[in-house]
Design brief:
Order of helices and strands: HHHHHHHHHHHH
Shape: globular
Distance between the termini: 43 Å
CATH superfamily: MFS general substrate transporter like domains
Strand content: under 5%
Radius of gyration: 19 Å
CATH class: Mainly Alpha
Number of domains: 1
Helix content: over 70%
Length: 299
């Protein structure tokens, strides 16, 4: 348990600095740049399912060894990377920064959109394997659940890239709202096809995997554009700290619902609450004057 806790802490120390780092290289195309970062994270998150799905091992240590080696390699690569030409001002640690972030209404609306997104994301990623296994056990023909789980999660990588391109063209608010709507509908609809047809179940799962993470980077891009440029790192860290805290609850909640209902079938429906809140927040943000700072004026 301690090792898992430390792993989570290490992930938290990687993600915000990576997003801040990529922001130092891009201004005009920040949406697609951050989309590529989150797309890479998505493939990395899916990779253990792929390794497990190969079926050439008998214990979990095979997966741990390969994923740990990949993490060490990534750390070595990141150590060699210089900051870009658009670096942010250096800021000292000051807890009062949190107050400034919370009082910034446009930033908090972008954060609220992100919180709705995180309500859904990791609970879906964390339980799609168990959900699909349960569907298979009730009669849905699925040949390899591990490969399906990998495909569903990894399908979010092109989603991140496409959402990044789209947000730089039509704006962050519209793009995130489109993706939140798609993912929320998928959370509601997948239970309708829990017993088949298989192709519909798989199609909805893939669409959900595409949309559920596609908007993630755009919330971070929004905060990086709306917040005081001296405190971008702190603003991103605050956003992600609260967002990941929310995931603890929904990751716990989904199997509890499955237990109460006696089936996994409708357990994902509760995740649609997050996208509903997220769409409301982002469309509210679009109406604010400060939204002009996002996506080179495209809001």
């Amino acid at each position: 348990i301690a090792a898992r806790f430390l792993t989570g802490c290490a992930l938290a120390f990687v993600y915000p600095p990576a997003l801040k780092y990529i922001s130092t290289w891009f201004r005009k195309a920040r949406g697609i740049a951050m989309g590529l970062i989150v797309g890479s994270l998505t493939i990395g998150s899916a990779l253990p399912h792929f390794i497990n799905g190969l079926g050439s091992h008998e214990t979990f240590t095979f997966v741990i060894i390969y994923t740990s080696a990949a993490a060490l390699l990534a750390g070595g690569i990141f150590r060699c990377l210089p900051e870009g030409p658009f670096s942010f001002g250096r800021a000292t640690v000051d807890v009062r920064q949190i107050g400034a972030i919370v009082r910034n209404k446009p930033v908090m609306l972008a954060n609220l959109g992100y919180f709705g997104h995180m309500w859904e994301l990791y609970a879906m990623w964390g339980w799609i394997y168990a959900y699909s296994t349960s569907a298979m056990q009730t009669g849905l023909p699925l040949p390899n659940v591990s490969i399906l789980a990998f495909s569903v999660i990894a399908f979010g990588a092109p989603g991140c890239v496409i959402a990044g391109l789209l947000s730089d063209k039509i704006g962050r608010c519209y793009t995130t709202s489109i993706m939140l709507t798609l993912s929320g509908l998928s959370a509601l609809m997948i239970g309708c096809f829990f017993t088949g047809p298989t192709w519909v179940f798989v199609m909805i799962a893939l669409i959900w995997g595409f949309a559920v993470v596609a908007d993630s980077a755009q919330f971070s891009a929004s905060v990086s554009e709306l917040s005081d440029q001296k405190f971008v790192g702190s603003a991103l860290t605050f956003q992600m700290a609260i967002g990941f805290l929310i995931t603890l609850f929904t990751i716990w909640l989904v199997p509890q619902i499955a237990s109460v209902l006696g089936s996994w079938r409708w357990s994902f429906a509760v995740l649609s609450i997050g996208p509903i809140v997220g769409v409301f927040a982002m469309m509210k943000l679009r109406q604010m004057p400060d939204a002009i700072k996002m996506a080179n004026g495209r809001r």
